[in-house]
Amino acid sequence: MSETAIVAGGCFWCTEAVFNDVIGVESVESGYIGGEVANPTYKQVCTGTTGHAEGVKIVFDPATVTLPEIYDMFMGTHDPTQLNRQGNDVGTQYRSAIFPLDDAQRAEAEAAIARWNDGHSGQTAVTTIESGEWYPAEDYHQEYWDGEGQRNPYCLAVIPPKLMKLRKSFADKVKG
To answer: What is the CATH number of the domain that holds 56?
Structure first.
């Protein structure tokens, strides 16, 4: 039976590309979570005034890839030490956050942040644990890297290094 995890680590195009390369991930949907506006648009979220983060909803097979592995991959493929930014993307919509769907996921999120902090002496993750309603992003944001993204200079600069981190640290979990 599939499980679902929701994380936000900057640009959702980048996070989606990472998890689409993970064995056991069945689907990745880009969207918005953690804000006050119902059914926000990309244009609204980009203003930074809705409170939403750009996130991804990951549906996965826990017999192949576990929730702790999903969270570790998330922490290991973006910079969880940057508050409200990832690289040149600045604003609360680009914050590092985990959105657990129940108490067990909350405990796993706390453990993943602690593991990351323990393994990076001198650095502390600012990743938050939050709740919120999920809103799928517009269709043109879905599967972006596999389409338009590979012609987008921003994506070409940002996504390959994240995929390299995934392949280096989680080689046994990456699709061929």
So the answer is: 3.30.1060.10
